[in-house]
Every structure is written in C-alpha cells, then in structure tokens.
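User: quick one, fold this
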Amino acid sequence: MIESNDEYVLEINNLCLSYFVRAGEIPAVVDFSCTLKAGESIGLVGESGCGKSTVALGIMNYMGNNGGIVGGSIKFKGRDMVALNEEELRHIRGSEISMIYQEPMVALNPSLTLGSQLMEVLIVHEGVSQAEARKRSIQMLDDVKLPDAERVMNAYPHQISGGQQQRVVIAMALLSSPALLLLDEPTTALDVTVEAGIVELIAELSKKYGTALLYISHNLGLMLEVCDRICVMYSGEVVEEGSIDSIFTWPKHPYTHGLFGCIPLPHADKNARPLTAITGQLPLPHERPPGCNFGPRCSFFKEGLCDGDDPHMEEVTTDNDPVHRVRCYRWNEVDTSVAMSAGIGKDAAEIGETVLEIDNMKKYYEVQDTSMGALFSGGMTKYVKANESINFTAKRGQTVGIVGESGCGKSTFAKVLMGLETATSGEVRLAGTNIGDLPVKTRTPKQLGSLQMVFQNPNDTLNPSITIGSAISRVITKFGVESDPEKVYERVMQLLDIVKLPRDFYIRRPRQLSGGQKQRVGIARAFAGNPAMVIADEPISALDVSVAAAVTELLMDIQREHKTTLLFISHDLSAVRYLADRIVVMYLGQIMERGTTDEVFSPPYHPYTEALLSAVPIADPEIEKRHIVLEGNLPSVLDPPRGCPFCTRCPSRIGEICDDVPPAVQIDGESHAIACHIPLEELRKAEPVVKVPSDLQKKRSLLAKEARAKVMAAEAAAAEAAAAEAKAKAAAAAAAVAEARVDAVPVDKEPG
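Assistant:
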C-alpha cells in the first residue's frame, strides 16, 4: 500500500513506444507524460488506434516480442519499470499493478472454476494457504456485490452472466489490493444498469483500498463520472490534458471539440442540431503527416504553420486549471461557437402509413427439465417466454427504439421479424401481410429485400472466405439495385466512404479487419439493397464516437431519402433518445412502457425506465441527473415472477400485489402506455431524471444559430467570391477575344 497520499504511484515522462516489423519501426506512442497519486483516477480517451491500450501495456512493460519502450521513463512507486528484470516484473503484474480487460472471457479460463482462478492470485503472489485464499476470495466476491459467493466460487465462467463475469474479473484484479488498476474499456459490452453499478463499485473499492485508476475509454460521459483528470489522445500523442471541469467546460484542441460534437446529449435534436462526425480518418502510425497529426482533419488548419514543426504541449492560461495543457498552435484562436456546434439542420423525415403491426406476438422456447426429481417422474417441459404479448406499430419513415437490458427479448423479437425464428402465436404484419409464421426460407425475394438487419456481432454474419467487396456487391446485385459491374463497384466504393473505411478494404477479407471495422461492413451491406425497413441490433455499440456519429447520421440521411422505417435496438438510451421518434421499453420479454420519445423521457415513468435513464452517462457537467442504481440481476427466464416481471428489483414496489398480479396497462394521453400497479397520479409526481437548465438550452440554441449563421455566411462569401472570379475570368476571356478580332482585321496602307 502507498505510505503517503502525496507520493506518486505512477510517473510517466516523455514515453515513446514502438513496434518493430519487417518494414521497420512503427512509432505507436510518442511523448506521453502523466502522473497518478493514490486514490486518483485519470482517463485516456480517443478513437481506436490512438494508442490508449498501448500505453497500458507499456506501463506493465508487456508489449510482446516485437514491441518495446524506445524513449522516456515509467516509474511505478519510484521504481523504473524499464530497468526491472522479468522476475521482478512478474511479481508486480497482477499483484501491485492489475488490469481489467474489455472482454471478461479474455481473462477467465473456461476450463477452471472461478474459485480456483481467484485463489490462484493470492497463492502465487502472496503465498497464502488454500483456506486463507478461499476466505479472502469469498470476501472479495461479496465486496463486488455478487450474490451467493459460495455458488460463484464453484461455478465455471459460462455458468454466470456477462455482468457477473466482469465483476469476477474486477474481484480478481483487486484481490491483492493493487496500487494501480488499469481499466481497458471495462464496461463497453455491459448494459447501462450493470455499467452504473460496476462504475460505482470500482469507485467505492478504489476509495477503500487507495487504488489509483487509469481508465481507457471512448465514452466521454463515463469519463465525466469516474475520473479526476483526462488525457485526450490522437495518433499516439496526448493533444489535450486537464481536469474534468476544464476539459468539459473549456476544451481547447479542435480534436476535443470534434469528439464532443459526436455525442448525442439529452437536449440534442436530430433534425435541428444533427451530430457532426470528424472528417477524414485516423492516420496509420507510419503515415503521419508533417507537423500536427490532426492537421488533415482540422477545420482550423493553417498552411505553413500547422504543417511545420511538430507542436509541443503548452499550458492553457484562460481557465483556473494549473494542469490544463494543449498540443496546438492555434488553440487560442479557435472560435468555440463554430468548433462546438452541431451540423446544419435538416428536414425531418416524412412519416407515412403504418408498415409494421405487431399484434399480441409471443415467442416461447421449449426446455426439458433435467432436475433429479423431473428425471424420476418422466421429465417435464418448461417454457422460456422470450417474448410475451408484444404490441406496437411502426410507420414509414419512422424510427422506433427498442431498449432494455440483455436478456429482455429485444434480439429475439428481431429474429422473429427477420424470419430466423417463427412466432409461437400472434401476428407480425409487414405491409398488411402476416410474416410472423414465415421462416426466412419460405419468404419471397421482395420480402427478403425489404427487410434487412445490422447484427450486434459482425463475426457471425461475414463469410470469412470472400472479400468485403464481394460481400457488399452480392447484396447490390441480389436485390436488383445495380447489374452493371462498373456501377456495382462504384456503389460499393460509395458505401465504404460512407462508413469511413478505406477503399482498399474492397479486396480484404474479414480476418484482416478489426471488430469495429467488421461492424461497419455489416452496416454498409445492410443498406446496400435500399431496404424499406432496417432492424439495427446494437449497431454502434462497438464503434468510436466519431464513426458512431457518422453512422447515426447515415441512418438518418437514408431514412429521409428513402423513407426507410428503422427499428433501433439498444441499451444506450442516449443514442435512442437522439434517434427515435417512438420508444418501446422491454423487460424480461414484456413491454413495460411505450410512447413517443418526449413522453418516455418525461414523467410519468415506469420505475424501470426511470432506472435506465439514470444509468446513462451524460457528457455534460451542466446537466443534473438523479442517481438510481438497480440492485440484483434479471430473474431466471425459466422461473419469472408471477406478478410484475420487474417486482424483484423495483425500488418503488408497493406490496404483494406486485408479486402476485400482472400489472394492467395504463394509458397516459393518446399513445403513452405504462404497465405498472402504481397509479398514474403517483407516477406523474416523479421528478425528472435528467434536468437540462433552461439557460443552458438557450445558450446551446444560440450557439447553434450563431454557428449556422457563420457557416452560411462563409458559404455565401465563398459563392460570391467564386462568382466574382468567374465573372472576372469571363471578362478577361471576352477582352482577349475582342483583342484577337482587332488583330485579325487588315490595316489599310497609308497613301504614299
């Protein structure tokens, strides 16, 4: 443990990390510096490929055979990590420095019980006895709020949920009370409710054990809630560093401004203030431009200055943060109203006739009871009620958001709609035709082409044996969009540009792409056939904020142009709030609440909706949010509650009626429906979960208007200058023609 809170746990000074390949040295991280004290937390944010994870690996001096530290220093509790031998490093890793990975199964051995993996940490690093290791492991599982720790100790990883797996990994990382904890996207794949609980848990344990935290994420909202300071990274460099307040209130670097412009905030309007993706792409480490790395993507780039010498970090003198530094030549010239503005407003999509009607749809799965009693009694069939009495409609050009935690039945409903599963009962009518009982193999080509899907996991949908270009081209030709090979090729190129992938990906295969890149290919392929309806199942959950903003605006633009109906499935209510016209909230296979976006995001709330709203990280310190953290986990789908499905976790439970009687659906207004026993009069008294100050709304609206006015004025000035230049060129050309004609006329000789 740290003896003094004033002592630095971690000191990094001018760190340079490189990988060595056949082509030579690839500089992954350049000139990185930061310090951390006990109990302090710092966040690294930026797009994929900017070097965040490489920094974490460099801190542990764990970069593999082809990577290493080529400059600078890393001191952990005063010890130089570069000078330590392998034995000394092995003692520190997992004991004094621990790491939590994005995917818990990367850290868990599927062939060993969770108890044996937890106990191994203490036995190897501290040499304690089996009994002592087991006792401390159970205590740590209790600390991370896992119910029935004894059962978890005896379970294998596949026998617990993803959220529980991540809690086990956190427990494993904290068992030896490390001085430094590295967290690489620890909550990206988790539900917002689970994320909220884990973030709060890590903060509590950090305070309890005095652990210093280094968070790695592209989620700026999460950084606001968990960190004291932030380092914004771009192309291997820190471009801006400062406290949470200074970075979120007075960002200086154009790249930081760009990241904020990609985030949907509660008061954002998808039509009046669309998101603005950062133009261009992150340069590869061996293809960095001269001067500022962000120069080719920066709207404030100045030739002769920004492409000269590499900019160095300099202190910001315009706010009260003594550690606010920025790597930019023009940071004090940036017009904040332009840099932080959203895109120019667009017309709302025209809402047409009803194209999808879900009428009392149910989807059950049969499961054979294999308990000992059932085996002796001849067995018994149980049913998993994945979807129970689903009712809602969707219109042409409308976006319907379907939200809820993992396991609530969102993806099952999407599979029934696509024909990958068939409904047990009820109807799913598309353009008046019931397709709920039609498997995909019996559907007509027109039905197949009109319904396309963006799946959550792109690895399951891309054929590893064919190129990306062939995968997208097949959709274009299959559904008759284009048949001319040249036009098909050009259409593929356009789609790759839209989802911000290099054009040379046309000849690559899926194994050569990262997870986020594969997901972008899946999105491009889904829209390649110009479908009437797209079901998007968590389409942006694994994407960087800039790419997610581009894809989000892509969804909106296609919808406006083709009047596409979009079903957007997600647990990210900030994205759903921005995109959706109507929202359906699901829990344990049932609809808890449905209505327009404004209705669902304002009281009266269903208690579950209220908790979901509270769990969403918001990247704006001026917005107030009520704190609600759900306790417990989803009930078993084999043994759901008899009454309200949410009664076992509901903070507003009113008595036995919630346990025994299914709630009736209460209608508030024309379309707002809530399935809850609490009377509407009581639900209406709830305070708003998210409060946006009225002066903030006015200020943001004014900034947006000013920015749009400046953009329009600049465009008008450019058009006027172009017209003047064209006029001048035309006048010059006319003068030249006139002069040529004069020269061509013969001149009479003077009389002799």
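User: anything notable?
Assistant: The first strand starts at residue 8 and ends at 21.
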